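Lecture notes, unit on binding sites. The following record was shown on slide 14. It pairs a sequence with dtdp-4-keto-L-rhamnose.
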Amino acid sequence: MMRVLVTGKHGQVDTALQGLGDQLGLEIIRIGRPEVDLAQTDTMEDAVRAARPDVIISSAAYTAVDKAEAEPELAQAINGEAPGELARLAKELNIPILHLSTDYVFAGDKDGAYEETDLPAPVSVYGKTKLSGEEQIAAQTDNHVILRTAWVFSPYGNNFVKTMLRLAESRDEVNVVADQHGCPTYAPDMARVILAMAQQVAIDDDPTLRGIFHLTGQGETTWAQFAEAIFEGSANRGGKWVQVNPIATTDYPTPAKRPANSRLSGEKLDQTYGLVLDPWRISLDSCLDRLITQGNLVKDG
Ligand SMILES: NC(=O)C1=CN([C@@H]2O[C@H](COP(=O)(O)OP(=O)(O)OC[C@H]3O[C@@H](n4cnc5c(N)ncnc54)[C@H](OP(=O)(O)O)[C@@H]3O)[C@@H](O)[C@H]2O)C=CC1
Ligand SMILES: Cc1cn([C@H]2C[C@H](O)[C@@H](COP(=O)(O)OP(=O)(O)O[C@H]3O[C@@H](C)C(=O)[C@@H](O)[C@H]3O)O2)c(=O)[nH]c1=O
């Protein structure tokens, strides 16, 4: 049975990986706080070695985009240094590492969807530290896959879908930015693709399977359109409909700057691995089924 070490014990992606890994009969070993703190890289080695992994999936990160502006050193330790240390260990153990990165490594001034060959130029502390993580991994081992994803949502943890449903509890309308474009991505869809890739790279040393890949849900939208789809889906399931007022980014000031366009092309992933994620609208239905129809919003906290 393949042993998959995953960083993160309470996050969206690591939770989805656990759920699917169990179904597929993989041994998923999750490491995280309090035993392993990625801000203190010396807490990682014993846990990684004890897990005897066949592959590492580096999912955990400092993901509080606005808060990172005030805590750049901590964000850099977790998003920059820790992946480098994980990759060093992967190299020593002679196993592949798959690492989650972000659309926020891009500046957002491109017209079309970003390709893997486009130059990153992050505009936030979070984006800069995630780019540093990519670089530190690549410096440690060639046996790596960097997976840039975006706008992740799921029934678990914190995300935009759950934020909107929570706002609906106290508001009849909400102002949402309409000039940032991206690709929402459902964590359980990601888990399907990530585990398929992990199984392939664990047995195939073909260099074309390595390197950077973009991994997002099919289709694109804006945060305002995404919010509208969330409330329509909510109303269709007997939940509340809330009016979305589209606004400009300048009317929603935040500590961190976000890219105006962070759409990612999934073409390389499709051509290399033959893998695509589901359209985000279909996945949003699955997510809302679990959150509203099955009443998990309250339970998940
Ligand atoms: N969420 C998104 O929209 C996007 C995410 N990504 C990337 O995808 C990956 C997964 O994201 P997602 O699942 O949404 O993240 P979450 O914010 O849901 O979870 C982050 C995980 O990292 C863990 N973590 C944070 N700090 C530490 C630390 N110091 N030591 C140990 N564990 C720590 C958290 O544990 P704890 O609960 O203890 O804090 C949690 O398990 C990340 O690498 C992220 O950068 C990329 C693009 C979009
Ligand atoms: C809650 C809220 C947000 N917004 C805006 C702020 C921001 O521009 C946009 C999204 O807000 P959030 O803070 O929820 O999302 P944000 O933290 O920017 O999400 C990002 O997380 C990191 C981890 C990533 O890697 C990215 O891919 C992306 O998913 O919506 C509104 O306009 N109105 C609102 O009521």
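Take-home: The two ends are 33 Å apart (CA to CA).
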